[in-house]
């Protein structure tokens, strides 16, 4: 028995230190005075008596009691029970010395204060109630003057009262004050006693919070409680620690932390601590501390702390059990007939034990099987046991579980293993629960009601442990009189007599020594139950059954290898490699290989050895470095057993080829493997003795037979017997722990000599294993080539360990070639690293295993010698391994080439790997496994080609070919080193080559390919991909005749320095806005610089004209003053050249359309019957260098007029006529967008007195030109043969409703609150439209689309489309349910919509253009014209979408589980772009065909989107363009002649690479494909023709799609090329063109049309057999809904047999080669073909009926000796079948429906455009920009790019703070929010306004400009400072982006602009940012736990989040009311 209390201390207030300014306590007395030998006194006790500080009180306070926990230097806990009361003290207030002379000083007086005094008992026992009673008796004796001396009480407590041992009887005592007390020790000291502390903790925090805190404490996090009660802090901390039983908390434990020690909380180590709630503000700043408010019941987890989750189903089972205990009513709340409530309440003590029982079961379930993973290292003299963590995690499948990993890695679990690991010890409740837990869980699964029964049983055991005596003892404890602490006259606590107290203590100790009786209670040692084996925890038998077939294949493969049936083994080897991804297969492999080791060495043949090594490497590669499945440990003996003989005396073991895996560098693996082998040796050491002891015991019991079967000696077995022993039904072997338990039991019965012998035997066993493992580590760590660095051996050497046949010379070469680059040690010597690693291992395991120092020293001396000897041995092995014959690899197959195609680099041996496409891999798609394939990659002047055979032996007879033109390469990416199990090799280098023809080459270079060759291949590939000019591409270099030198005819541009300086200065002056002086020469004019013939044909501008607001090209728009004398004669000086040009298909189309004849002069004396003429004004390309030489213009427009107004458009691309409707005579024109106002100011004529009098400005000429176009439209005068139908016209509102009545609704965009505001007039604001349909009236509310302030980066979200794949736009529909508004409320956009709808009346000319360029258009200057702003996708959007489309169609890796092909297509946004083109083209079709109005398409620069729309519209309108000849004419006219920049967009030269590939033409072909799908009878050409064009427009095989405009092609000599018609016999069937043909072409390349014509004459390859001219519709109106769109199979299909089929000759040669090979193998036999969709080309291998018939006719003609006739001759003789008359009504109905749907789309575009135009003109206000240098990085408000730096200053609006680049000024919307009186005329003029004619009219011009501002003054009332636009405003905290904190901002909700803006403060006028409410998806409140890093003192209910299409925003309001108010306001704006 030990002392109940060790020390009694009296601590009082230190009045002496108070005078020096500090308040603290001091020890007044302590008993005993000297320290106990076994328990020294703990200093600093006075801090824990008053944790919040020693402070005097002005009032009397009640005594308090609490218990603190002190930890000494040995980590032993001492409990400090403290009772504090207050004594009165007198304080005298004295004035300061310096105030003595002051007469007003207060006279000194006395005041009574109360000082705290504490009575403290320091003890090591957990009897809190007893300590409270003892201290209470002393306080009572002091207050009530009991007749007992306090010295007696203190002496009896310290000397006479002792604590009984655990399991002992109840101990009753009295301290001498007439009291009766009892101490009841627990039955087991290892089980904590809690009384009701755990139940109280759950009442305070709740179930979920306690579980979270419990998980955090187990995973070593910092836990901090705070409360106003100290005793609650102690109880909560003790409860949390008790819940961790049987684990012991070993970190810092301070339940009550004094205030002076608050800095302890910053310690980096985990802790459980508690502080008073007065420190709540101080602890908020702790970053990684979990703060628990016991009083408030909340738990705050910092954002940097990841809450660990207890694995399922343990967590769910625990929570359910806790609800059964704490919330019994919850489980029966849903019962229809619940039982009557029980009147008996469950006491807290019972709840406490039941809760603890649940948590004991939780840990028992988590740790199930842990005893099976214990490794016994030593038994004597003390047991040493380790835990195999990796094996435990692997068997339970918890390798990735973070919670279990942290628990097993913590100090608590290490202590658990050391204390509970020994198999023979005192057991407690946890050992019993652990042994039966699995049985209980099985019973509870069958009967859930048994759960609570088992919990209650365990709770009863816990209760019996705390209260083993059921009979209560009535204690008697005196207490002070109630209210005694408030007595006025209270005596001071007396000073105790130390001598008297010491005498009583000594007397009590002497009496106790005489009567001391040692009682151990029930603490008897016994064998610890093993519990369930770890192997039986999971359903492993089911796993084995599922893999039975794979295991059988694996066993057969191993048997084939050792039976030397290598060919049979190789056939099933790939399947075995794939099966090794399963851990069951890997374990089975090691077992099967172990069965074939007959002795310590297994000598194999070379091929056997190679296959075995590859199997071992595959098993290791698929396993982790932790070796949780024991695969690496099982491979260790195999790697040192399997070997082969290289030569006489040189043997190579398998370990030299399996070294390159991370597991061998993991020291924890080596320790675990070492301990497992030591345990086996210890078991063998004691197994015979254990057998003898057990036999004796069983002989006594008469049951020897059973146990003799369990004991099996370790003997040499045959493979079959061993295999039988692996059976799951084998007899259980006695484990090492059971043997150790028996040894520990008999240890005390052995003699000292026997004990010492056992100790020596165990030490020798460990020592011998240490020697063995030191050698093993040396084997596995020293590489075969010792010159390599140890750090390189992880990956670089794996090629030699995974070779196909043997460690060949090629493998050794690859090793040598890469050595020495990454060496970190001097000379690359790995010997020091290995020695250091082995020495560290030896020290660790030998020290832990108690190996003697002498043995450890000898090991240290042995290691260097072992390493040196092994290195010497490996030198011979390495030398002989390099002499092995090279690997036999497949022959490199040479691909078929074109005539003229040359190989740039011979084939490099590579492997073609499978990418994200499933075709050809033989997995889910089925079919043969064609990929990966082994072959070679070739680089030719035209293509990148892979050709090889599949690696799969079952498919190796087929040839795999994948190729693409080198010019289509878009991305090259290096691949990391990776191990590929299906190739069984480590591949050192790899490349991923992506092509824009939707092809991907993912290759890995073979080991024999050196790095220099790889780099050479890359450089040559990039050189061929990026030629300096197009004349270096294959279209020219592939010919046999060199490029002629006749191209350099004129002098170089800027030949002299004078010319260059002149033009540079002029350009600089123009950019700066300086007017240039007139030249001294008389004959000058504005012309664009002419490109000279000899110039380099590289693009002059980047892609900036189509990006970020698309400003005009800086170089194309530069105007140069060029003298006419300097302009030399061109090719068009001869009129015959123009006539030749007119004969080309593109120009000849003008004649077909009846658009006039060629005019060589500018006179007007032509026939009035020709309203149009073909003008040669651009014959010298001086008006517009990107336009063709011949243009169609109205007859009345002169060439001089054209030169004047061409400048009003970008790139001078003015409107020209490109097509005319044959019936309505309406015109289709194309142009670029209008110039912005800034550039128009620069383009004005210089005002001078000599030339200004009669000269018209560009704007006037433009207005005249538009009026001429209006006059040329027949319906402008309502005359002519065409009479429109009012009911079917587009301007009729009846027609609009008719379109909506067809089943859909007209989607009209909503408006922002700006346009909904009613006009401030006396009239009603009702603006509903009344639409009359027959006799009914329909009311519709039209809403206006919010006009974006500036283009956004995510432009896709701003485009409103029909059937968009993204979120549907917020639209108002013509739905009768919405026609009437409740309560008389109407929309506010009445005036604007009325004006917009009035604008829908029919006009003669519609201009479809950009919104930004249409804002300043004056409609009054353009009568009968309407300007419609439209939405379209810019080039940058097309580029981004194409990249996503390529990744979706040809992914580099398989799609994840959350991603699918269709989802990737949707995210690409490709189909909405096609839809947009179809809708714009459809609008033009309806306006031309239905409305009879002319249409001008003027978008961007006029060569991208404009071309797409115009060409598509003509295909829809004119059947001629649906023929082969017509489609060619269309492409030459619209795409080639009008200057689509093919070279620039397709990146054909090196200078164009930076701009990125833009598939504008491909997108057009895809649109035609969509139309073709819907109207297959209307096209003469088929889908293959479109694919052929899509392939070859980027292939650079033909010259047709090269260069950027007609001028460049003219200079190249293509345009007027003399070409003779070719005869059929002149054409080579294979090459396509004969050398004779090449000679005629010279060096000018080959046009694609000749190639197409040649094949079209020979075969119907491009013909559509469904083409029916008689049945086709004249005008096509396709559906543009996304549901009608199809993914073009051109993006998805490929032909692995011969590569792309669009290189027709190559495909035919490859097919013929394959057929010849098959015929050689099987001569005279009919070969049956199996067609594979991804391998063969179905069209070529299995043609349709028509193709097959024509082929048969050709064969018959050849057999008969007839001359072949054209297929067209036979086809024209056929008669098409008559149509079924019954189908006509259906066709008419379908056409009518399609017409209605099509027209509704057109109406939507017109209505939306009109509304946008009216809104822009109503509220457009200019900015006042000034130059400003930004010193910090800001973004341009227009394009979003960075705006920073003094080199390129930006622009800043002085009124509203708008920021932009100087180049973006022209495109900035006119939406200044602070318009003032503007006098600057340069910023107020519109983009198409009438400039002043002369200086004399400047005043009038200025007045006009001021008048243009007048309507916009309405906008002044809507400034941000006005409250009308501020729907809601206030301060909010906003969380910044990544790695940014919370900041307070002033937020303004603007319903007019539909924005949520924020400012730095309320006074700030410049917004720092905004959120477009049109992008907002949801707004909702969130809890604080979802928000990280919140500000201090944040209201948890004030958080809310806003989700937009771009990101997620978090906000914090001051309270919940403000937050909900913001949410309501925002939702009101977005609904």
Descriptive overview:
This protein is an alpha+beta fold. The protein is built from 61 helices and 56 strands. Strand 8 and strand 9 (181-183) form a beta hairpin.
Explain the layout of strands and helices.
Blueprint: E1 2-3, E2 7-13, H1 15-19, E3 25-31, H2 45-49, E4 64-71, E5 77-93, E6 109-123, H3 128-144, H4 150-160, E7 162-163, E8 171-173, E9 181-183, H5 197-205, H6 207-218, E10 222-227, H7 230-243, E11 252-254, E12 271-276, E13 289-293, E14 298-300, H8 314-326, H9 328-331, H10 348-366, E15 374-378, E16 384-387, H11 389-396, H12 402-409, H13 411-420, E17 424-426, H14 429-446, H15 450-466, H16 498-515, E18 525-527, H17 540-546, H18 548-562, H19 566-579, H20 583-595, E19 602-604, H21 606-622, H22 631-639, E20 642-647, E21 650-653, H23 667-701, H24 705-710, H25 719-725, H26 736-746, H27 752-781, H28 798-801, H29 809-817, H30 831-848, H31 853-881, E22 903-912, E23 933-940, E24 943-950, E25 960-965, E26 969-975, E27 978-980, E28 985-987, E29 990-995, E30 999-1005, H32 1011-1025, H33 1034-1037, H34 1057-1071, E31 1084-1087, E32 1120-1123, H35 1135-1142, H36 1145-1152, E33 1158-1159, E34 1172-1175, E35 1191-1194, H37 1199-1205, E36 1216-1220, E37 1227-1231, H38 1237-1242, H39 1258-1272, H40 1293-1300, E38 1308-1309, H41 1313-1316, E39 1329-1333, ...
